[in-house]
Structure formats: C-alpha cells, structure tokens
Amino acid sequence: MTAPTMPAPPTAQPMMGGAAPAAGPSGLAQSAHVIATVLAGLSAGFFYAYESSVIRGLAEVDDLTYVQTFQAINDTIRNPLFGLVFFGSLPMLLIASALHRGRRWTVQRTLLVLAPVLYVVGMAITVTGNVPLNDELADVEASTVTIASEARDAFEDDWNRWNDYRSLSFVGAFAASAAALPLAGRTGRK
Q: What is the pLDDT of residues 69-101, one digit of tens each?
C-alpha cells in the first residue's frame, strides 16, 4: 500500500516573454516608507510654514520685538514633538531605503536613496548654520533698542539664507519619498 501524495506547491508561471513576475516591496518596507514619508512631510511642512509665515511676520516688527520673539521661539522649539519629527525622519528614511535595497535599481530606489541624502543636507545646514546663529542670539541681552538692532543685523540675513537652503532640502527629501510611493510594486516592465 502506498501513502497518499500531496500535490506540489504552485510555481510562478512565466509571463509573456518568459519573465517571471518580480516581487514588490514587503508590507514592512511599504509601512516604513509611508511612515518615513509622513515624518519627512511634517518636517518639510514645519519649515515651509515657518518660512512662509513666521519669517515674514518677524520681518515686519521692530528690532527689540524681533530679538525677543526669536529668542522665545528658540527656547520653545526644542521639545519632544519637534524632536520626534525632526530627528525621527532620518532613521525612518534610511530604514525605508534599506528595506528596498534588495530590489534592482529603479526610479523608486533612486528616490528612496535621494530622500535621506537631502534630509542629511538639511540637518547639516541646521547644525552648522542655523543653530550657531541661534546660540549667538540666545546670548544677547536685548535690553535696549541699540543692542537689539546690532544683534538683528548680525543675525537675520544669514539665518534667513540658511533657513531657505534647509527648507529646500527638507522639502526635497519629502518630495523624493512621496514621489516613490506610487512606484511601489512596479517592476519596470512595459
């Protein structure tokens, strides 16, 4: 008497032209990509909103108000919610990129490598450009209009220029990650 045999598991059938279907990204890779894109979008949105509203509003105030307001903003910006988004975006972008590393080189892969590179550029600008200026402004005892005016003159133009550059970097990182989302699962076949 012979034992019953189990049917063989199905195998991938070749598609037209003999090519087997390419596997899309895993659920984990897709989830990491979505989370990375949301975090990068929040970061880009923060810098965009700051650039398009706060900087413009501060440009309209007197020197003493400018320095005191900027000091107050700098004192409150270092908080857990900002930290989660600002510092959490890069690891998630790197994870999303790494989880797609086994796939052949595609437009999506290129965008997922570009996103953390642009984010690192934005962080480097922040650390080397904006933060040192913030620290200098924090040391100013803005007790008179003359002191505030001198502090603003030494701060505002340079800070705004660095902020423009980092804002573009963060928006670029978000755009690259977001542009890669609709490409998920595509295999590059026509």
A: 999 999 999 899 999 999 999 999 999 999 887
Domain boundaries defined on the chain: 27-183
* Angstrom distance (rounded) from CA 79 to CA 109: 33
Name the pTM for this structure: 0.80
Q: Which long-range contacts (CB under 8 A, 24 or more apart) does 177-182 make?
A: 177/33, 177/36, 177/37, 177/40, 177/93, 177/96, 177/111, 177/112, 177/115, 178/37, 178/40, 178/41, 179/111, 180/33, 180/107, 180/108, 180/111, 180/112, 180/115, 181/33, 181/34, 181/37
Show the tokens assigned to 37. Answer: 């894109």
Residue pLDDT, tens place only, 95-144: 999 988 765 778 888 999 999 999 999 999 999 999 999 999 999 998 89
> How far is the C-alpha of 23 from the C-alpha of 8, rounded, in Å?
21
123-162 b/e with 16+ CB inside 10 Å = b? Answer: bebbeebbeebbeebeebebeeeeebbebbeebbeebbeb
One-letter amino acid at 66 equals Y
CA distance 182 to 167: 24
